[in-house]
Amino acid sequence: MATPKSLYVQDGNNVDYTPAAAATAGAIVQQNGLAGQVVADLTAGELGALRVVGIVDVQKDATAITDGLQVGWDNDGTDVNGATGGALTSTVASMDFVVGIAQEAAGTAVADCKVALNTAPLIAEVTIANNTAGTVAAALAALEGTYVQATVANNFATIFSVLQTSGLIV
């Protein structure tokens, strides 16, 4: 009998999580590049679960959040009620890691916001045709900070040059 190429492990909505320090249910943390919500109170070193899929209501800072845009977690942020120890934010420079996409608008005085965990918005769809590598790179650089689906109608040499200029390939 042949060895299977893969085996089912778990559904992926929750993943195993063992915190280095005690973690409270509802805490937002990052593990292996995924944002997650601690499912139940855990002591340091205790195996538990981290919710990484779904919509969660997260305490936020005093920034206004627009629905549909990326939000992140600020580990040392202060929430709307003045508590320190972390808060959701829409300020990119304050984000320690991305949490997901805001599922509702939340004004500056609103205490929390619904977020789709580990999702990314498609902000712009751009078609760049018949340009040199320099102008394609410049067009993409102008969109920095947004998620872009770019279609480059050009030859492979130009595409590779853009990827090289962007540092995505060597």
Account of the protein in words:
- The chain has 170 residues and is mainly beta.
- The chain has 2 helices and 11 strands, in the order E-E-E-E-E-E-E-E-E-E-H-E-H.
- The strands form 3 sheets. Strands 5-9-8-6-7 form a 5-stranded antiparallel sheet, with no helix packed on it.
- It is flat and about 55 Å long.
- The mean pLDDT is 84.
Shape: flat
- The topology string of helices and strands comes to EEEEEEEEEEHEH
% residues in beta strands: 25-35%
- Beta strands, count: 11
For the report, how would you describe the main beta sheet? Answer: 5 strands, antiparallel
What is the CA-CA span between the terminal residues?
A: 42 Å
What is the share of helical residues? Answer: 10-25%
Q: Describe the strand arrangement of the main beta sheet, using strand numbers.
A: 5-9-8-6-7
List the total number of helices: 2
By helix and strand content, what is the structural category?
A: mainly beta
Query: Can you give the mean pLDDT?
Result: 84
> What ranges have pLDDT less than 50 throughout 5 or more consecutive residues?
none
Rg over alpha carbons: 20 Å
Write down the domain tally.
2
